[in-house]
Amino acid sequence: MNKRQIERYFVELARIYPKKCMVVLTGAAAGVLYGRVRATMDIDFSARTRNWDAFAEAVSKISARTAIEAQYAQDIDRWSPITLMNYQKHSFLHKRFGSIEVRLMEPAFWAIGKLSRYLDSDTRDLVNVFKKMKTPWREVASVAGRALRLSPKSTACFLFRLQTDDFFKRFGKKIWGKRFNEKDAVTLFHKTAGVE
């Protein structure tokens, strides 16, 4: 799925759902719109609208028509044990399609879900998006640290910590260059997270 297909999805959705709605994309579809293309045939997003039943019916129709499967919720923060914090306030406008406003999370907030899952496809997405968007490593470490600190304690927190440490160690220089210091990034991440 490419940028044109994603935007076409929302053009079609706006035609049959002409009511005000704010969408915040996440997952690989957001990665495509950041400017990094990876094959995906689904679209993940949060949606804020007053008429949820009518919106859900419209999404079902458009997904059937376009063969693009949609995973969506009023609040995608509930999808993972690691909080996305106030991700809606940390998003920016991509484009308006009629009365539907499509937004993208700031890359460091979008990365929380990728670092939580941490498949090979996720690390590739993270590397490409951070390079494309010129996301500073300090921002990534600070946002990830706050997310870990504010999440309910669970085994997922332990994995998130290990996976974020690993990401900085394995991919930091590839993204931020030879002068990147993995120890500084991990230290900032741990300090912000309140890890002893």
Description:
- With 196 residues, the protein is α/β, with parallel strands linked by helices.
- The protein is 56% helix and 16% strand.
- It has 8 helices and 5 strands.
- It has helices at residues 3-16, 27-34, 52-66, 107-117, 120-133, 137-150, 155-176, 182-193; strands at 21-26, 42-48, 69-73, 91-97, 100-105.
- The protein has a 5-stranded mixed β-sheet.
- The longest helix has 22 residues, at 155-176.
- The termini are far apart.
Instruction: Please give the count of helices.
Output: 8
Distance between the termini: 43 Å
Biggest sheet, strands in spatial order? 3-2-1-5-4
Largest sheet: 5 strands, mixed
Short description:
This protein is α/β, with parallel strands linked by helices. It has eight helices and five strands.
